[in-house]
Amino acid sequence: MNEIIFLDETSSTNDWLRERCETLSDKTCVTAERQTSGRGRRGHSWETSEGMLAMSILFKDPPDVPTLTARIGLSVCDAVAELYPALSQTGIKWPNDVIVGNHKVCGILCESFGIGDCVNVICGIGLNVSQSEEYFKKVGLPNAGSLKMLSGIELPKKLLCEKIRERAIIRAGELFCGCYEEYRARVLNIGKEVRILRGNDERRARAVDVAENGCLICEDEGGRFEVNSGEVSIRASEGYI
Ligand code: BTN
């Protein structure tokens, strides 16, 4: 049975699913009011404040795993557009940060692991629902924004969780080729100068497109090359995106 589990506190909702995945059914979703060891991409810690929705969904052996992270980003865009009509113009900072008006409203951490011949994926979503501008300044996140701050509307986290889960299940069952043009149209980095961070290495290039496999196509004096989302973080050369 597919379900949503509501917790007051856990270390990380991704870890909670991982520890129990063998007994949980496909598409189980968990959300927590507080995470004591929330994680972001590339090993960063992720603070879970009161106004943030922290949720994770377990996908057992989903199709097209390498592009799942991009499709989960689209599912958050779908949910935001449906619940906040004024915020329908969401963008994506490749591979899957959801951006509204130059502010990051959502970060996504997809972690995959093999069991036998299957690859399972846990998709963790951290959505800024109702924090204030002052809060983000105070915690040193000037580029972050919440849906309430950007729309003036505060919706319950439960409603957002249910809508994102509904959209994520649909998107996870689709192939990337079915949403490639839609995804590409949302990617804000295209045409921008970027810094590609891999471990301690940094390479500067221009992002020129998204490939049909979900990679970011970049170009520098050596020519064009593809960047895989699993390995890197993309920063703007100037500004935030
Ligand atoms: C990022 O932008 O770096 C990704 C952040 C992902 C945070 C979410 S919150 C729910 C889930 N549990 C975690 O520990 N991380 C993800």
In a nutshell, what does this entry contain?
By secondary structure, the chain is α+β, with helices and mostly antiparallel strands. It is built from six helices and twelve strands.
Oligomer: single chain
State Rg: 17 Å
Going across the biggest sheet, name each strand in turn.
1-2-3-7-6-5-4
Structural class: alpha+beta
**Judging from the principal axes of the Cα atoms, what is the shape?**
globular
Strand content: 25-35%
| Main sheet summary | 7 strands, mixed
User: Which residues form runs of ≥5 with pLDDT under 50?
Assistant: none
Mean pLDDT: 94
Helix content: 10-25%
- The CA-CA distance between the termini, in Å, is 40 Å
Which H/E pattern describes the elements? EHEEHEEEEHHHHEEEEE
Q: Could you say which small molecules are bound to this protein?
A: biotin
Number of helices: 6
Work out the number of β strands.
12
Describe the structure.
With about 240 residues, the chain is of the alpha+beta class. It starts with a strand and ends in a 5-residue tail after the last strand. Strands 1-2-3-7-6-5-4 form a seven-stranded mixed sheet, sandwiched between helices. Helix 2 crosses helix 5 (about 155-170). About 40% of the residues are buried. The protein has six helices and twelve strands. It has helices spanning about 15-20, 70-85, 135-140, 145-150, 155-170, 180-185, and strands spanning about 5-10, 30-35, 50-60, 90-95, 95-100, 105-115, 120-130, 195-200, 200-210, 215-220, 225, 235. The site of biotin (BTN) has 20 residues, from helix 1, strand 3, strand 6 and strand 7. Biotin binds near residues 12, 13, 14, 40 and 54.
